[in-house]
Recover the amino acids of this structure.
């Protein structure tokens, strides 16, 4: 690593609560009146998103989130109201999250992967005490798109556990706002329909780095046929080195980073709120990345 000092300071800033409030956030804390008759919202979407971001980063329940934000505003001597926990829960499903700002300027190399997140049940103690049958665990699948150059998550999508990687791919690719020059995915994305979906989203010149199965046979896709021929001639490990498929491990590292910093389970109960929770967590990880990254250089 060549930037130890800068990276250490970036890690310190990730725990500094002052990075979460700015003058712009304070000025847009309260909601603007809609001009319509009836009750008006008191808190803007930015205020709700800020509270939910702090909740995701510090792993707080909703009531503790309310108290934490209240204490921060008190230390700042800011005369702003704090949303109660019920309002945070009620506003989450329909929350309009601010779009994340990308730092990459040109075409990117996109790594796509997915992982499972547990849904918090909270009734395990009752089942153990009263001998109730254990309920089947419910999972959600978090699909991510990772930019190799900037180190940011440029796309994310939360689906039920029965939705496969290829089924969630169109919605995931729709969130990528910039150009993509290379797509890297595991064997789950192999197939002609998947290739058509990717090229419809990013153009016909996108390079697909997807490993075909061991029993794959040549078909109508020339790029896939070239991968099959190269693996047959040189072996799978040589193909991975030549095509850069090993970079997919960095996407897996981002999934591990998500579970280490945010957690392995979703705290919300319904699907809409869980999708908001996952999206806010992904944006929070991107903000941490922009504070500073480790720079590596090969020495041997």
């Amino acid at each position: 690593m060549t930037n130890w000092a800068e990276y250490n300071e970036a890690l310190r800033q990730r725990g500094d609560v002052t990075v979460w409030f700015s003058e712009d956030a304070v000025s847009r804390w309260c909601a603007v009146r809609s001009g319509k008759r009836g009750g008006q919202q008191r808190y803007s979407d930015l205020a709700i998103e800020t509270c939910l971001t702090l909740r995701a980063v510090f792993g707080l329940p909703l009531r503790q989130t309310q108290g934490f934000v209240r204490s921060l505003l008190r230390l700042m001597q800011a005369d702003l109201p704090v949303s109660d926990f019920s309002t945070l829960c009620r506003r989450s499903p329909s929350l309009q999250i601010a779009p994340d700002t990308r730092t990459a300027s040109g075409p990117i190399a996109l790594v796509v992967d997915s992982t499972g997140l547990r849904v918090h049940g909270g009734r395990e103690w009752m089942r153990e005490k009263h001998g109730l049958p254990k309920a089947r665990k419910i999972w959600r699948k978090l699909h991510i798109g990772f930019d190799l150059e900037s180190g940011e998550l440029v796309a994310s999508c939360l689906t039920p556990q029965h939705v496969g990687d290829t089924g969630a791919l169109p919605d995931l690719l729709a969130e990528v706002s910039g150009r993509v020059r290379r797509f890297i995915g595991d064997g789950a994305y192999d197939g002609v329909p998947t290739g058509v979906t990717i090229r419809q989203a990013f153009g016909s010149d996108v390079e697909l780095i997807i490993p075909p199965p061991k029993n794959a046979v040549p078909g109508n896709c020339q790029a896939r046929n070239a991968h099959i021929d190269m693996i047959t001639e040189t072996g799978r490990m040589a193909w991975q080195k030549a095509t850069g498929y090993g970079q997919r491990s960095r996407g897996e590292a981002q999934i591990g980073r998500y579970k280490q910093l945010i957690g392995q389970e979703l705290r919300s109960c319904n699907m809409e709120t869980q999708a908001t929770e996952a999206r806010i967590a992904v944006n929070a990880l991107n903000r941490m990345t922009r504070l500073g990254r480790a720079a590596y250089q090969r020495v041997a």
Observations:
- The mean pLDDT is 89.
- The chain has two domains: 16-94, 108-267.
